[in-house]
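User: Can you recover a sequence for this backbone? Please restate the input before giving your answer.

Assistant: Of course. Working from this structure:
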């Protein structure tokens, strides 16, 4: 499990792109992960054959945990020997495995309720079981050694008998326990959305938020865009409103460095570099890739940089260093038609700019 940012302690396997026995080329996408910073496809560090997958889809493990093994084709186990059946005992690790340091325990797994002796489940399964008052020992697991998987518990909740479960220690009769409602689809909250919520609540508690709203005349910007549109298209890029806004922001941050700063106790840390974060809306949440040294770029450079990070954010091709160390953030709720938004500061920054809709309006001039 790679370290996708300085503060990342764990990651969730969302999807295996390759399966056991597949040939893998170096830097070829191997699996997809989700963290609180970024969703990304992880490339193979070496060429060979995928001979073992140690972590299933939906499971969360600590950074640096071994999730798979790449080797030679001759090392691929036979189908019958690949995984022990639920009835067979799980083989004990050999001396080499026992000598390894214990895997770092993730914060989420520490706060989960203890699982029954001898039954191993993922943090996701334990959380769903707790939220729905499900005794996981009553679920027949399809995983390694009878392990209850994400699919097992979701399928169990859809069955009629799940609605009659009695929560442990609740004192309620089985018929009084509400089960999944008819016609309701149950989907787990994504790692990204869960972490975004946690970080935004933390930011509200950390910084006193105050908002100011201004109307800005974009007539001159629109005229310049029309005049230079063809020139930019010949250079294989588009001249967007966001490029003008980014240029205005970096110029202003040089004039007002206290906004390009962070707090460290009673000290203000003035950042010499202007690393501009651009919020990009994704289907599963929001991500803020960072354009480093944004003040050193002209309008063309900013246009290309914004288009590049936005495209790679949507295709999950961002690198870990491209999603942290931002010093100021721009978010654009106006693309959805809102007049303005009230954004929450992206910690540890001290300010954020929310851009509203750009549209024609009748106004009094002068």
């Amino acid at each position: 499990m790679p370290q996708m940012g300085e503060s990342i302690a764990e990651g969730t396997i969302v999807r295996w792109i390759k399966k056991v026995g597949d040939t893998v080329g170096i830097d070829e996408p191997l699996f997809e992960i989700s963290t609180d910073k970024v969703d990304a496809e992880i490339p193979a560090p070496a060429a060979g054959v995928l001979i073992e997958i140690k972590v299933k889809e939906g499971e969360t493990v600590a950074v640096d945990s071994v999730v798979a093994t790449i080797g030679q084709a001759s090392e691929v186990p036979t189908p019958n020997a690949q995984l022990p059946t639920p009835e067979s005992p799980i083989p004990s690790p050999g001396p080499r495995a026992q000598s390894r340091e214990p895997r770092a325990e993730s914060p989420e797994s520490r706060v989960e309720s203890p699982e029954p002796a001898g039954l191993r489940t993922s943090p996701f399964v334990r959380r769903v079981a707790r939220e729905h008052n499900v005794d996981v020992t009553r679920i027949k697991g399809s995983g390694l050694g009878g392990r209850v998987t994400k699919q097992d518990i979701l399928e169990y909740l859809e069955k009629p008998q799940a609605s009659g479960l009695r929560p442990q220690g609740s004192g309620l009769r089985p018929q009084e326990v509400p089960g999944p409602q008819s016609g309701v689809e149950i989907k787990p909250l994504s790692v990204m959305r869960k972490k975004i919520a946690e970080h935004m609540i933390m930011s509200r508690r950390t910084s006193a938020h105050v908002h100011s709203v201004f109307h800005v005349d974009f007539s001159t910007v629109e005229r310049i865009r029309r005049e230079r549109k063809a020139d930019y298209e010949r250079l294989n890029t588009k001249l967007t409103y966001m490029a003008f806004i980014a240029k205005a922001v970096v110029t202003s941050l040089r004039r007002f460095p206290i906004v390009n700063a962070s707090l460290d106790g009673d000290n203000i840390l003035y950042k010499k570099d202007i690393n501009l974060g651009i919020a990009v809306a994704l289907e599963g949440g929001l991500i803020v890739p960072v354009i480093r040294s944004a003040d050193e770029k002209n309008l063309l450079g900013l246009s290309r940089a914004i288009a590049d990070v936005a495209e790679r954010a949507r295709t999950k091709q961002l690198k870990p260093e491209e999603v942290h160390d931002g010093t100021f953030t721009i978010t654009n709720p106006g693309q959805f038609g809102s007049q303005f938004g009230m954004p929450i500061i992206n910690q540890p920054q001290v300010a954020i700019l929310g851009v509203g809709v750009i549209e024609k309006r009748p106004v009094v001039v002068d």
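That completes the design. The radius of gyration is 25 Å.
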